[in-house]
Amino acid sequence: MSTNNITSSNSKSAMTGQGRVVILGAGESGVGAAKLAQAKGFEVFVSDYGLIADQYKAALEKLGVPFESEKHTEELILNATEVIKSPGIPPTAPIVKKLAAQGTPVISEIEFAKRYTNAKTICITGSNGKSTTSLLTYHILKNAGLNVGLAGNVGQSFAAQVATEDYEYYVLEISSFMLDDMFQFKADIAVLLNITPDHLDRYDYKLENYAASKMRIVQNQTADDVFIYCADDEESLTAMAITKPLAKTYPFSIVKPVERGAYLEANTLHILTEPNKQLTMSISDLALQGKHNIYNSMASGIVSKVLELRNETIRESMGNFKNIEHRLEHVAKISGIDFINDSKATNVNSTWYALESMTSDVVLIMGGVDKGNDYNMLKDLVKSKVKAIVCLGKDNKRIHDAFEDDVEIIVNTFSAEEAAQIAFHLAKRGDAVLLSPACASFDLFKNYEDRGNQFKAAVREL
To answer: Which of 139, 303, 387, 452 could covalently link to 326 via disulfide, CB atoms 3.0 to 4.6 Å apart?
Structure first.
């Protein structure tokens, strides 16, 4: 067998404690899993079908873990006791199907890491708002003096932190792809923000399959655990009726009062875990503005109250939080035109939230890899707020078809620089240029961060 593209730095990798763990994917989660597996005495091998980034290659070499790139060598993978798979690798990948056929367990990094920590886990999922809510929750807990880590889809690898840190709490942003490979894992506090069509290409284009995946956030929970959910989200309520969570439930709503959870009354936020344990706060004092962010703040607030943090600490943290890069991020004001980077909006619902929060006329930059998007939900907002659409992607036909009757101007572009320049010429003083793609980025960019960074650089060149 050729060992081309296979690297083994030294003999430290020959630890044979408890079997052979193979890790598919050498990104943040894969390298973190390798670090933890090695620390626990497993024989470890890492395989990535793509190119491994230099920083991760260097990390594996430092660990002395053998790895291969740009291939999956079957005889080095199919003999695994257990496989830890990157969330980005679909279950339909040939090597994953072969592992499943022979009965080899395939799990996520989150599932693996949880075995080796007694920390309380606060797990946040949903189609939209996961990163913002996870970061806000982490911000509040850290400010309250809790010994807390941040991991999952955001921050450093959970497994790497379990290997090297001793946190008492973890805030974990959990995607549906991660949940699909989690089986024994249990969240102490589970948060489901919403369920809207996303990644349907991975779920046979059936929303009910995707919703069932999201509801795995409550698997293994008991009556001693906590489940926080949006009472205004119909898809969440439908999925809950099927799954029937066993945990103590705390709903949040902006349209009706709740006895336990969070609700909005006029412009006042009420968060209560018990009738006599209530926090109130004006929504104008929240760092995160916009209707969607009231939901995110409610979810974080309930987590904080469940953990019995002081009201003063929660209020202060919810008022001074800085949102994440690439999520409704103000880039610049040029000639009276606001440029806003919402590159993290990789689905239609995220773009709906972005448009809903706009208070001026918008030149909308959208497009990329369409994941089976239904653009109908955007039509009313596009009619009322969008004066032109600048498509940024290789194939923009479905965007043209969806909005040709609603917007006079739809133009195609193939780079962030071109999109920014054309949007600038189409906008006038008082307008906003909003990059909110509603699509994945992989046709023209490495990822949504790359797309957002290129857009910001292009705006600064105007």
So the answer is: 452
- Topology of 329-461 in CATH? Protein-Tyrosine Phosphatase; Chain A (3.90.190)
- Please compute the mean of the pLDDT values over residues 141-161 and round it to a whole number: 94
Which single residue is written with the structure tokens 């109250």?
A: 305
Distances (CA, A) of 37 to 136, 187, 199, 405, 416: 30, 22, 30, 56, 41
Q: Which of 127-141, 218-232, 278-292, 419-433 has the lowest mean pLDDT?
A: 278-292
pLDDT in tens, 106-140: 999 999 999 999 999 999 999 888 888 999 999 99
Strand ranges, E, within 232-336: 248-253, 261-265, 268-274, 277-282, 329-334
User: Which homologous superfamily does the CATH classification assign to the domain defined by 20-107?
Assistant: NAD(P)-binding Rossmann-like Domain (3.40.50.720)
Determine whether 372 is exposed, middle or buried from the number of CB atoms within 10 Å of its CB (0-12, 13-18, 19+): middle
- Which residues define the annotated binding site for ATP? 126-132
Candidate CATH numbers 3.40.1190.10, 3.90.78.10, 3.40.640.10, 3.40.220.10; the one for domain 111-320: 3.40.1190.10
Q: At residue 6, does pLDDT exceed 50? A: no
Residue list for the binding site? 126-132
pLDDT interval class at 198 (50, 70, 90): low
